[in-house]
Structure formats: C-alpha cells, structure tokens
Amino acid sequence: MRQGAVTRRLLALAVLLSALLAAAWADGALAQGNPFAPGARPQAQPQAATPAAAPASGGWFADVQRQVNRQLNQRLAEINKGSSAALLFGALIAFAYGVFHAAGPGHGKMLVVSYFIGRDAHPWRGALMGSQIALVHVGGAIVMALIATAIMTGAAPPSAEDMREVKLASYAGVALIGAWMFVSVLRGKGHAHFHAHHDHDHGHARDRGHAHGHGHGHAHGHAKGQGRSSAMVSLVAGAVPCTGAVLVLIYCIANGIPATGLGLVLMIGLGMAVTLTGFGLFGMFARRRALAFAARGEKPGRPARWRRGLDLIGPGLILGLGVALFIGAY
Amino acid sequence: MRRSAVAGCMALAGAGLGLGAPAEAHPHVWIDNTATFVFAQGKIGSIRLRWEFDEIFSASLISQFDKNKDRKLDAAEIKELEKGAFANLANYGYFTYVTVDDKPVPTVRVTGFTARIEKDKLVYEFAVPLDRPVDPVTQAFTFAVYDLEYFVELDMGGRERDGARYEGNAGLTCKASVGENPSKRIYSGQVAPPEMRLKCVKAP
C-alpha cells in the first residue's frame, strides 16, 4: 500500500535525522540541553512574577507528569533487578508516560489539531497520523540510543529536544510545512482537495505502471493527497526523540535487557499515539461543528466561504506556530 | 477570497500571541539534595551540598566514568567525572540560589568536589562558599536548588523533608522552613520550586 511506503520513507528520514543529531552530539558541537554535558548553557529564564494568590496554571499537569516520569525511572531500576511485577507495571507506566509526554508542552499536539481543522478527513486519518508521529518518535529514539551506546565516551547523554539548533530546525520545518500547505490551498482555485486528487492520480498511474487514470475515484486520490502532507507533519512533529525514551533505551541496553527497553519504548509510542489521535479527533470535531454551524444559515455562499476559511486557518495556524516557536527559540 | 486571507492572517497572529516558549516533557533526572549550613563565629560561611542521583542517571554516569568497572570511583575517575559531568554546571550557578536580605547572591564557585558510588546511586559532594558570611539571626537568608530548565528535579529535603543540617552553630537554634516562592516559576510557569528560609535565634 502507498501508506506503507510513506511510513517507510518517514522512518528512513527519522533515522537519518537522528543519526545526524547523534553525530553532532558526538562532535561536541551541540552539547546542549543536558546541563551536565560540557558546553551546555542555560536558555530558560525564570517566569515573570505572578500574583501569589493565583494558582499555577497547569500545575496539576506538571505534577502528574513528574510523578509518571519518576515512576518510570524507579520501575526501570526494579525491572533491572529482575522483578516481573515491575515489568508489567513498568509497561503501564511507560504507556502513561507516552500519554503525558504527547499532551505536555510541545508542538506535536498543536500541529495535529491545526492540521485537522484545515481539511476534511476521516477519523481513521487521525489515528494514522497519531501512530505515524509515535512511530517516527520511537524510531528516532532507538537510533539515538544505539549510536549513544556505541560511542559512549566522556560526556553525559544528550537531550536532543533541548538543543537550540535542533529546536530551530524543527520549528523552521513546522513553519515551512504550514507555508506550503497555506500556499497550496490559496493556489487551488476552487478546492484544494481536487487539485491534490488530480496531481496524485497521474503520478500514481505512472509510478505503478498500470492504468488507473481517473476512474480511480475521488476518495482514493483525496486520501493520497493527504498522505503526503500528513506524512510531513508527522515527521516534523515526531522527529526529535524524547529524552525519556532515549534514557530508557540506553539504560536497558547497558544492562543487557534491550528487548525490555524496546518494549517499554513501544509502550511509550502507543501512549503518544492515543493522545495525538485524541487531539486529531478534536480538530476534526471543531471543523465539523464550524461547518455545520455555517450550513445552518440561509445564506447560500456561507458554507463554502467558511470551508475555505477553515482550509486556510489550519495551515495558517501551523505556519504561525512554527514562526512563533522559531522566534521564541532564536 | 480576501476575507479568508484575512482570517488566515488573524489565525496566524493569534497563534503567535497565544503561545509562549514550550518545553518538552520534563524532568528526566532526579537529585535528592541535602544541605548542611556550616557556621564559623556564628555566621554561615558555606553551604555543603550532597546530591544523590536517581538510579537511571546514576547508571548512565557510572557506566561512563567508572572506567575499571570496580563500582568505586578512584581519584582519577572523580577528576574525569568532575570535568565531564559537573564542571559545566558553573553555567547554571550549580543550580543553587541564595538570597541575603532578599537580594540574590550569585553562586560562582564551589569547593571540594568529590563523588562516590553508594549502592546503585551516584553521590556528589561539594561546598558553596559565601564570600560574605551571613548572620541568620539578623539577616533574612533563603536557599534553593532548582534547574530553571527543569531537566533536573532537585528535592530540597533529601530523604527527610526538613533536610537542613547545621555544623558549628553552637549557641544558635536554627529552623529551616521550606515553602514555594510563587514569584519564581519554572517550566513555562507550571512549577514553583521549593525555597528554604533559614532563621536562627540565640539559644537561651
């Protein structure tokens, strides 16, 4: 299936990206993020003063996340001592880690929501994208951990997600994809999906060497048009592996339980996929509600205008997100 | 057409305004911190810190720096460890924050770094000297350890919640209260790290 090919290519790209990252880290040029690593410098500033009475927004979330991370850390040490109950519990905690990691601060979920605000999609597309992101993420973590294990020298392990250069690159990627999607919606004179449909059907027919032509139907072409952009969004959202997964893997490999590490990291990925799918469905729901609202009025042109507006708002949000994050990190 | 472009731009601006700088899922490293306030002539001259790392990060550092795998750190290994996984913390003020009479006193140097392996955990020990010794009877003194980027979570109390210890404080009764300072939030404002306020009175 074509979707498989997209996923394979994505994985290959993720692997390449992680290898580059690890190489840069080995080189010492990008020693950032992990404060213990030589060369790392702080980027964060303390937040501006808030009134003492105001409760911390999202404080509970940070708290739960901290507990889950800590639990995973402690279970891992027990698993290594040979406790099978800890293994089972550890798998659950890894899943929870994934759920919270994907829901935590970061750009993945905003990307997914914006993406599905901007286009019509079947719910399974949301699940597919969630899984793609998680897969790319886990693949990247595995590569990072393998390379880290192979070249483990005098430096503490890296935190790729905190490296400034990596951040800038991935935020620029977000902005570029947003811009590309925005422009392709603007260019598509009537409806973006029709265009994607046409382009892809031809390409497809040539690729495979059997005559599909136009008879192949709208739905299929449509889905393939989405395949490319959703694959790119997944790549950008998932490419930088999370430190948690990398640390788990490095630890398990070093202690001779790589299969356990792989299992735990897959559970992390599964948890992430669930959360991200949820965010995708939320984006679709928002779009459907807005379109249903537009259709309620008597004005004949309104539903089409709203649809077009949403088609632009989705990519616009992605572009804005990328630009804002890039400026923030620069 | 024009209207939708305007909508797109508004969405863009909204996205730009609505988002601060996000961080990724943290923390990843845990440190149990124990502070010993070392007195000389009734004033705090330095703070001795003991950091006990969580098992996973400990394992990672031990596998890198216990070169001969004897589960002990000898002088040469400690030196390498200091260079490879401690010295850089100078850029972070060693995660320590001191205020005297509500004014920050920067932590620029530490003394006497040493490290050892206790069971499965790596332990760092070092001291933060105070260039101007502090009189905790007359001066307001606070001490905190935290990572602004929240990669590391430092537990203020060590295993005991009021983990402050004292040395050479004969004639003084000291009490440390740990509370949150809401004006110093980290991790996109979501976490208020604990802060220790030390008060001493002359013993009757």
Structure commentary:
The complex is a heterodimer of chains A (330) and B (204). In chain A, helix 2 runs antiparallel to helix 3 and helix 4 (108-117) runs antiparallel to helix 11 (302-329). Chain A is mainly α. Chain A is globular and about 70 Å long. Chain A is built from eleven helices and no strands. Chain B has 204 residues and is α+β, with helices and mostly antiparallel strands. Chain B has helices at residues 2-18, 55-65, 75-85; strands at 29-40, 43-53, 96-100, 103-105, 111-118, 121-134, 141-145, 152-155, 165-167, 172-180, 194-202. At the A-B interface, helix 2, helix 3, helix 9 and helix 11 of A face helix 1, helix 2 and helix 3 of B.
User: Most extensive interface: pair and counts?
Assistant: A-B, 81 and 65 residues
SSE string of chain B? HEEHHEEEEEEEEE
Principal-axes geometry of chain A comes out as globular
How far apart lie the N and C ends of chain B?
83 Å
Which residues of chain A sit in consecutive blocks of at least 5 with pLDDT less than 50? 26-32, 47-57, 189-224
Beta-strand content of chain B:
35-45%
Give the strand tally of chain A.
0
Give average pLDDT of chain A, whole number.
74
Describe the biggest sheet of chain B? Answer: 6 strands, mixed
Encode the helix/strand succession of chain A as letters.
HHHHHHHHHHH
Q: Uncertain regions of chain B: pLDDT < 50 for 5+ in a row?
A: 5-23
Total of helices of chain A: 11
